[in-house]
Amino acid sequence: MKRGYQESSSSGSFGPPHSKFKYNPEGDAQFLEDDNTKIFAKKVADHYSARTNQTLEEREASPIIHLKKLNNWIKSVLIQLYAKRGDAVLDLACGKGGDLIKWDKARIGYYVGIDIADGSTAAHDIMVMRTITNAAKKFSFPARLICGDCFEVRLDKVLAEDAPFDVCSCQFAMHYSWSTEARARRALANVSALLRPGGIFIGTMPDANVIVKKLREAEGLQFGNSVYWIRFDEEFENKDAVDCPEWIVPFHVFKTLAEEYGLELVFVKNSHVFVDEYMKKPEFVELMRRLGALGDGKEDQSTLSPDEWEVAYLYLAFVLRKVES
C-alpha cells in the first residue's frame, strides 16, 4: 500500500457522441477510442502543458481575477462540506496541484492527483501513467501527482495499491470526457471503481441548460461579453481561458449515465444558486471574505464585475455518492 498513513475512510438532449470501437485484448472494447479522439485529447494536454506559472502580481492583474477567486470559493465549500479528517482523496484533472492547500485545510490523510498535462517535459505519451512526484513535503499528508489521461486509462489497475478513496474530485474538467461515449463511460467507471461504497464524487462543470438557453437567445452561433465568448461548430478561442476543444454535458444525461456505474445524485446547483445558498452560512461568508472574490468587506471594495458574474452563471456544482452494495 502506498498511502503511508493508517486508514480511516454539443447541445440539446443528446449524450456524448458514440465512439468508433476497436479490438482490445483486455476485453474493454467499449472504452477504446479511435485516433481522432486521441488527437483531441492531445490538443487539450498540449494546451495545458504550455501554460506557464504566473506570479502573484500577474494573477491579480487578470481581468477575471474575482471570478477565479469565486471558483476557488466554490471548490473550497465543496471540500469543506464533504472531505473529512483522514480521508483518501483522488483528484482527477488536478492541474499543477492548485487545490492541495484546500485539501490540507480539510486535514485529509492521503492524496492522488492525476492530470493529462505534464509541464515538465516537452513531449510525453498521454497513455503512459507515471509518477512525477512522490511527496508534497509542505503538506500534512503524503501525496502523489501522476501524468496520464484519466478519461482513457483504466485507473483501477494503476491505483490498485492506493484505492479505495473516500472522495473523488473533478473540478472544471469533467466535460473533457464528453467528446465520446467511450471516454464519458471510462471517466465514470474510474470514479466508481476507485470510490469506496458511500464515497463522494464532487465536481464543477459547464451548465448545459444555461449555455443552450443563451445560444437560443443569440442571433448567431456565438455569444459572450467582455471576458468570455463561446462559438459553436467552428474553431474558437476563449479569452483568458481555454483555446482547445470543449464539450457541454446535458446534466440529465450525465446523471443517467452515472447511475449505470452506481453513482447517485446528491445535488446539482448552478453557481448562482450555490453562492446564494451557501453565503447564508457564516463560516462560508468568512471564507469568501478571506479569498477576496467580493472584497474583504472593509478597505477592499473590489468585487466581481457583471460580466464575471455572467460567466459564473455558465457553470454548476454537483455531488454524487457511490451506492452502498
TrEMBL record:
Cellular location(s): Nucleus
Region described as Disordered: 1-28
InterPro entries noted in UniProt: mRNA_G-N7_MeTrfase_dom, mRNA_G-N7_MeTrfase_euk, RG7MT1, SAM-dependent_MTases_sf
EC number(s) given by UniProt: 2.1.1.56
Main localization category: nucleus
Matching PROSITE patterns: RNA_CAP0_MT (PS51562)
Keywords: Methyltransferase, mRNA capping, mRNA processing, Nucleus, RNA-binding, S-adenosyl-L-methionine, Transferase
Domain of life: Eukaryota
Domain MRNA cap 0 methyltransferase residues, every copy: 62-323
Residue ranges, compositional bias (Low complexity): 8-18
Coiled-coil stretches noted in the UniProt entry, renumbered to this chain: none
Catalytic activity as recorded in UniProt: a 5'-end (5'-triphosphoguanosine)-ribonucleoside in mRNA + S-adenosyl-L-methionine = a 5'-end (N(7)-methyl 5'-triphosphoguanosine)-ribonucleoside in mRNA + S-adenosyl-L-homocysteine
Enzyme class: transferase
Protein name: mRNA (guanine-N(7))-methyltransferase
Organism: Rehmannia glutinosa (Chinese foxglove)
Taxonomy of the source species: Eukaryota, Viridiplantae, Streptophyta, Embryophyta, Tracheophyta
